[in-house]
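User: Can you model how zinc ion sits in this protein?
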Amino acid sequence: MSDLRNKPESYWKEKLTPEQYHVLRQKGTERAFTGTLYDNHDTGMYECAACGQPLFSSDTKFESGSGWPSFDQPVNSSNVELHEDRSFFMRRTEVNCKNCGSHLGHVFDDGPRDTTGQRYCINSAALNFQAKK
Ligand SMILES: [Zn+2]
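Assistant: Here's the modeled complex, given as structure tokens:
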């Protein structure tokens, strides 16, 4: 297991922008249609903004209309971890980066029926996009 999980919050506060810190470390959610990546259609890899682990490929990104980057599966299921989230009186499944434990977003079961049926609804602020050269 990565030792990034044992870093103090001060480490992340220094490393991340205030918006990234709010989303990744305080389980925040950016406002819909305000992120930098929901409308990104370039080919490449979406990585964890905190630790750089590859999380989602542009091949699996789809138009959900939600205003957040949406993917039907992670690039590798062992790169993310899922937790039940009962905050805000809802029952949701939280998606975290497995490498550093940071919060990414949530996964719902209303994704495209022709693939996985899942919708990984991920904050732009939690991702860095690496365009394929
Ligand atoms: Zn990470």
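A couple of observations from the model: Residues 18-26 form the longest helix (9 residues). The pocket of zinc ion is lined by residues 48, 50-51, 53, 97, 99-100, 102 (CB under 6 Å).
User: Helpful, thanks.
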